[in-house]
Specification:
The chain is an alpha+beta fold. The chain has helices spanning 13-24, 52-61, and strands at 2-8, 29-35, 40-45, 65-67. The protein is globular, with a radius of gyration of 11 Å. Bound molecules: dioxo(di-mu-sulfide)dimolybdenum (9UX).
Length: 68
């Protein structure tokens, strides 16, 4: 499965690293691509192991909001 999350509040390279790192730590996530200018985060994952709720939580734990 691949989804595109819209993440609000990432403005620098460190923001990008924080979000990427948090998502990569999730069991079942196999690929994370962050586009800083658009806030789009493409995640490839195994839906048997993780969920969009887990991803939302991981991103929010880093201090960023997932929009819709
Ligand atoms: Mo620097 Mo990114 O404070 O939030 S880590 S802009």
């Amino acid at each position: 499965m691949e989804i595109s999350l819209n993440v609000k509040g990432m403005t620098c390279g460190h923001c990008k690293s924080s979000v990427e790192g948090a998502l990569r730590e999730l069991d079942g996530v196999t690929s994370v691509e962050v586009d800083l200018s658009s806030g789009k985060v493409n995640v490839t994952y195994d839906q048997a192991k993780t969920s969009t709720d887990d991803m939302r939580q991981a991103v929010e734990d880093q201090g960023y909001d997932v929009v819709a």
